[in-house]
């Protein structure tokens, strides 16, 4: 996917990742630490994680297509290198969501889950969720720097 309605697809797809990945991460944490939330939200979290995992490589492929058509710079290279790592974070979030769903299914079937296992899973979900959200921020920040550079600084006029 290269363009949508004449716009680079990357510029549109990236907004899905910027919203879905942190939202999924937040909901996953809720499901991990609050059983009542898990009962209501676990399938939504799994679905959002799957959508994020599918959209991530589409977004990075569209970004690589766009990179070939704009002037290369060190900032753009940094952004694309960071962007290429996002697929690992999306997959980790999907695995964490799948584990939450597995725990949920066991609970619904009346099979007990050892408290230690629940706490370990919660810790894993929290770490993966925070890491994913931080990486989204880092990638977005580097993309903004590559796109806009020092534009705000260049427009600022010194006070006389």
Structural notes for this entry:
The protein is mainly alpha-helical and 160 residues long. 82% of the residues lie in helices and 2% in strands. β1 (3-4) and β2 form a beta hairpin. α1 (9-33) packs antiparallel against α2 (35-67), α1 (9-33) runs antiparallel to α4 and α2 (35-67) packs antiparallel against α3 (74-108). It is elongated, with a radius of gyration of 19 Å. The mean pLDDT is 89. Keywords: Membrane, Transmembrane, Transmembrane helix. The chain crosses the membrane at residues 12-34, 41-59, 86-105, 117-137. It comes from Mycolicibacterium hodleri.
Q: Please tell me what the overall shape is.
A: elongated
CATH class: Mainly Alpha
Secondary structure category:
mainly alpha
Percent of residues in beta strands: under 5%
How many individual domains? 1
Strand order of the largest sheet: 1-2
Fraction of residues in H or I helices: over 70%
Query: How many β-strands, per DSSP?
Result: 2
Number of helices: 5
